[in-house]
Description:
This protein is of the alpha+beta class and 412 residues long. α1 (8-18) runs antiparallel to α13, α5 (97-105) packs across α10 and α15 packs across α16. Helix content is 38%, strand content 17%. β11 and β12 (347-355) form a beta hairpin. The chain starts with a strand and ends in a 6-residue tail after the last helix. Strands 9-10-11-12-13 form a five-stranded mixed sheet, with helices on one face.
Amino acid sequence: MSEINLTVAAARALHLAAQDMLAPRRHRASKADVLAAIRHMGMLQIDTISVVARSPYLVLWSRLGDYEPGWLDELLAEGKLFEYWAHEACFLPIEDYALYRHRMLDPEAMGWKYSAKWMRERADEVAKLLAHVRTHGPVRSSDFERSDGKGGGWWEWKPEKRTLEVLFTAGELMIARRHNFQRIYDLAERVHPEWHDSRMPPLDEVRRSFVLHTVRALGLAKAAWIPDYHRTRRPHPDPARMADEGLLLRARVEGWDDPVYIHPDHAQLALDAMAGRLAPRLTTLLSPFDPIVWDRRRALELFGFDYRLECYTPAEKRRYGYFTLPILRRGALVGRIDAKAHRKAGEFELRGIHLEPGVRISARLVKDVADAVQRCARWHDCPQVRVNHGAVGSFSGRLGAAFDAAGTISTA
């Protein structure tokens, strides 16, 4: 294959094509498309914050447009997906279960996600809980009443919840399904009865598979970007050596010192990107936990976009807002919107709107972003959009005018 040399714009286009984010969908999404999108990404990160749709549903909306969120829950219940620790807690294609089994068998290496001390000191309680599940079937954390008067964050989980979570991390329990986003735990052998540890691949093969999966999901990757995607631990396979073996392709990006690596499955896409045949046309809003932005260094190096989630930052120290949604517009990350869906009122509030320095405000930019916000609002069952008085500036004003012209701006 000829040498691949990409401009930064072409590198972005290749990345977005691999993430299935190059162009708007032409057809309404189906349930099969939900599974296909997760397979493209390799995983779908889970988060419970719900000022807008919970992150996994929003990540899928960014790729699929309007779709039925219940399909994600159905795919989990049908066994086509499973939950485990990947980048963080994620929905994963069931065919990748073997890659994560080594983590389950070495849970003490999972840090805060597992406590050997808890399992040791509460061995009788753990055994009783497992026996209860085995005899009575799946359980939820809410099936157990709190008796210590506490409540709050994960550090104050009731004992049964902590036990369920460590058994989940150790692979003895799996998530059978969810109800109102609450996990329902069952024995692993009942949730995934086809599995047997005799099918587990060697650890070295797993490590190389994670590299290949990451590079394919990203479209192209610097060596330094690869470990973060699946949060793999050392030793990390050398992608240069894998390229020497023909497992990866090498490429160069204009202005970058380090080479990038491309999966052979994307060889034609890479050539199309180099020839300028990949034209990003999608404008949409992203979740903070979207693979495109969850690695701050990668987002900065690839898109020149410095993104930090500020929901865990004290309010007085936030720069942009509690849960800002990056704006992806035609191959560039051009800004961020701090939004909140008021579902009962049917109103989608824009509490803050910030464009990146140097982004030129044009009628086409306003239309692209206004259309994306309106699509997102409608999907949230919020037909009205309100631009908060704090979201000042010429761009906010022009967005408001666009909503007003479309008849979707709130009069409240």
